[in-house]
Design goal:
Keywords: ATP-binding, Cell inner membrane, Cell membrane, Hydrolase, Membrane, Nucleotide-binding, Repeat, Translocase, Transport. InterPro entries: ABC_transp_ATP-bind (IPR050319), ABC_transporter-like_ATP-bd (IPR003439), Oligopep_ABC_C (IPR013563), P-loop_NTPase (IPR027417). One of its GO terms (biological process) is peptide transport. It comes from Klebsiella aerogenes (Enterobacter aerogenes). This protein has a domain at about 95-175. The protein is built from six helices and six strands; from the N terminus they run ααβαβαββααββ. The chain has helices spanning about 1-15, 30-40, 60-75, 90-95, 110-115, 120-130; strands spanning about 50, 80-85, 95-100, 105-110, 165-170, 175. Strand 3 (about 95-100) and strand 4 form a beta hairpin.
Length: about 180
């Protein structure tokens, strides 16, 4: 009885009707499945939830709903999310701090505003330049991406691993040089 009451509470918290508890997994949409995964994670009262590409397969409107749910949970439940994604537009919307990885290493880390306003590493610059600018008020933010290829151990036979020297370029903003 207590477990069922908790399940009802969590399902409602993620914006679903408790009637979904009587359905089979194949009967759910992608967005409903993501909400159920979030409810399952919340069941343990975590301080941190790791979400790896949790909205990548969702259509735009459902993605926005799930992102808004995560932001609301951050605010109301004081839960931290380690949000892993290649979608920089979602990262910009959901994150407080951003770490950019290239070839398995963090190449830039800092507050969201610093990373998006002043990206320093070439890979970060390319990622941010690739964000579609659909909002007319943000068209002035268009960035020119350098079309040079970044060094890669898969393509360049003379590639050398980075020296792993980080330089502080702003308040809590670091970049690998």
């Amino acid at each position: 009885q207590q477990a069922l009451a908790r399940a009802h509470e969590l399902i409602e918290k993620v914006g679903l009707n408790v009637a979904v508890l009587n359905r089979y997994p194949h009967e759910f949409s992608g967005g409903q499945r993501q909400r159920i995964c979030i409810a399952r994670a919340l069941a343990m009262n975590p301080k941190v939830i790791i979400a790896d590409e949790s909205v990548s397969a969702l259509d735009v409107s459902v993605k926005a709903q799930v992102v808004n749910l995560i932001i609301e949970l951050q605010r109301t439940m004081k839960i931290a999310f380690l949000f892993i994604s290649h979608d920089m537009a979602v990262i910009e919307r959901i994150s407080h701090r951003v770490a950019v990885m290239y070839l398995g290493e963090i190449v830039e880390i800092g507050p969201r505003q610093a990373i998006f306003a002043n990206p320093q590493h070439p890979y970060t610059q390319k990622l941010i330049a690739a964000i579609p600018k659909t909002d007319p008020s943000r068209r002035h933010l268009l960035r020119e991406a350098n079309n040079d290829e970044l060094p890669s151990p898969f393509r360049d036979k003379d590639w050398q691993p980075p020296t792993r020297r980080y330089e502080q370029v702003g308040n809590q903003h670091w970049v690998m040089r």
